[in-house]
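Review this today:
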Amino acid sequence: MRKIDNVSNDPHQVIQLVLDDGTVATVTLDYNPMTQRWVFSIEHPRIPSPANAIYGLGVSCNPNLLRQWRSILGFGLGCMTTDKVADPVNQQDFANGRAALYVLEAADVEQVEQTIFGVAV
C-alpha cells in the first residue's frame, strides 16, 4: 500500500499513478462545496468500458474504493481518515492530513479481502 502524497486542497486535481505493473492510472479528484463531498473518476486500460474509465464515485472512508472491480483491475484505492470513521467532507481534509488516499497493489487488495472481508482471493 502506497500513500498518494500529492493530494492538495485544490478542488480539481488530476493525479497520475504508476502501478507496480508499469501501467498508469489517471485519477481525477473533485471537491463539491455544495454537497461537501469529494468525488473521483479513474481511467485505466483494464477498466471494461468504452472510455476505459469509471466516473463519479464518492470518496469515503473505505479500505478499497474500487472493490467491486478487484478481480478485473488487480489494484485498488483506499481512503483512511485519522478518526477512522468520518468521510473526508472538507476541502482541506487531504491537505491537512485528516484524510489520505492509498494505492493498493494486487497483494494489498488480496490482504484487504482476507483481513477485512474474510474472503479468500
Observations:
- The beta strands are 2-3, 12-18, 24-32, 37-43, 53-58, 76-81, 99-104.
- The chain has a mean pLDDT of 95.
- The chain is about 10% helix and 35% strand.
